[in-house]
Design brief:
18% strand; globular; 13 helices; 11 strands; two-stranded antiparallel sheet; nine-stranded mixed sheet; alpha/beta; Peroxisomal Thiolase, Chain A, domain 1
Length: 418
């Protein structure tokens, strides 16, 4: 059967706005949850269903990023009274969130289910810590570890540092420029009741924090937390009968990689990340460009990861990322606010889920901050972005999420207000 008339083989325009995120939910971002990933996962999914106004019988698909200490979809579905027509639990790092949303669209488009809950549950501080320490740190050396640990690349910071250092060498990027990513995200987190770290930091705070792995100081690195998160995706037609203004999905790119997906340093440029290739899928699929985006959720496992993605997705020219992130453009009140919840650097670490959740709430125009609640039960946003105030972006209509697993692999998504 030929594709619809307004499409070609590589640009599925007919999928634009056909599916939507209709429910989001999470647990507290904490350390030492005292709960299993199974218990936290059921809470996050239930919260997302309640947010959407869905009953268990109305959800029939489930996907998860199940790395480290998570729990299979079938366990949580049974606990919640959900019978699944499709489920899949996958591994893949921080590029999983947007990729799983793309998979959800695909399985619904194929008629295998009608409504998909996507979750991530992790005791990322108290149990399996990504840096290789924690209550359950022992792991066999196999798979990708065979290519990394022999070089001393145990943690994400150690693995990514050569890309960061090369960018500094090639373009003269300065640590104080990139430190502004933490400064801005901490400003946003100070207006987020859910954020684990609410303190506002300065550039000097970042540069004076202890060195972890050159060029990464402690405050260049994300916070580790225990938490569960959930996103529910269904058709736009169905979304219009649910509780909230839907976040319509314009386009997705999932797990796009550099030419070498094992030792990407062999094919260079070392300072290039997967977004360089992903942008050629994302923007045509979404029918927009970087200039059309009102707010960005750029994966911030480290300050440098956000900067590199902004360059390679085309928000600024290559080599100008340091200037871009230190210019004020990514602040609330700036031209293109970024990670308005505080992101991984301040709110909590969720492998990208919380940044999608934040953009969904931004598009609904109902971000939870410290603004007063009006007589109608809705938050009355003041757009006063001083500490302890508002974090709602004014007149927001289109957002982008830029997911990151490592320099060689990335995913991304564009949404718009329904």
């Amino acid at each position: 059967m030929p594709l619809p008339a307004d499409t070609d083989a590589t640009t599925p325009k007919y999928l634009r706005d056909k599916y939507a995120i209709v429910g989001v939910g999470e647990t507290t971002y904490t350390r030492g949850s005292g709960r299993t990933t199974r218990a936290m996962g059921t809470v996050a999914i239930r919260n997302a269903m309640q947010d959407a106004g869905l009953k268990p019988s109305e959800v029939d698909g489930m996907l998860s990023y199940s790395g480290n200490d998570s729990t299979p979809s079938t366990f949580l579905a049974g606990d919640l009274g959900i019978r699944l027509n499709f489920f899949m639990d996958v591994n893949g790092g921080g590029s999983s969130t947007e990729a799983l949303i793309g998979i959800a669209i695909g399985i619904m488009e194929a008629g295998m289910c009608r409504c998909v809950a996507i979750f991530r549950s992790m005791n990322g501080y108290s149990q399996v810590r990504i840096g290789g320490t924690g209550a359950r740190s022992a792991a066999p050396i196999n798979g990708d570890a065979l290519h990394g640990r022999v070089y001393g690349w145990q943690s994400a910071g150690q693995m990514f540092a050569p890309t960061f250092m090369r960018h500094m060498y090639e373009y003269g990027t300065k640590p104080e420029q990139v430190a502004m990513v933490k400064v801005v995200h901490s400003e946003h987190a100070s207006n987020n009741p859910k954020a684990f770290y609410k303190k506002r930091y300065t550039v000097d705070d970042v540069l004076n924090s202890r060195m972890i792995c050159k060029p990464l100081h402690l405050l260049d690195c994300c916070v580790e937390t225990d938490n569960a998160t959930c996103i529910i995706v269904t058709s736009a037609d169905r979304a219009r009968n649910l509780r909230h203004t839907p976040a319509l999905i314009r386009g997705v790119v999932g797990r796009c990689s550099k030419p070498r997906a094992d030792m990407h340093y062999q094919c260079g440029p070392i300072s290039r990340v997967a977004g360089y290739y992903a942008k050629d899928i994302l923007w045509p699929n979404a029918g927009v460009g970087p200039e059309d985006i009102d707010a960005v959720g750029a994966y911030d496992a480290f300050t440098f990861t956000s900067m590199l993605q902004l360059e390679d997705y085309g928000f600024c020219k290559k080599g100008e990322g340091g200037e871009y992130v230190s210019s004020g453009i990514t602040r609330l009140g700036g031209k293109r606010p970024q990670n308005t919840s505080g992101g991984h650097l301040c709110e909590g670490y969720t492998h990208g889920m919380n940044m999608v959740i934040e953009n969904v709430r931004q598009l609904r125009h109902d971000v939870d901050d410290y603004c007063p609640i009006g007589p109608d039960g809705k938050r009355q946003h003041t757009f006063d972005y001083r500490e302890g105030g508002c974090r709602q972006v004014r007149n927001i209509e289109v957002t982008a999420n830029l997911g990151w697993a490592n320099p060689l692999t990335g995913s991304a998504m564009v949404m718009r207000r329904g």
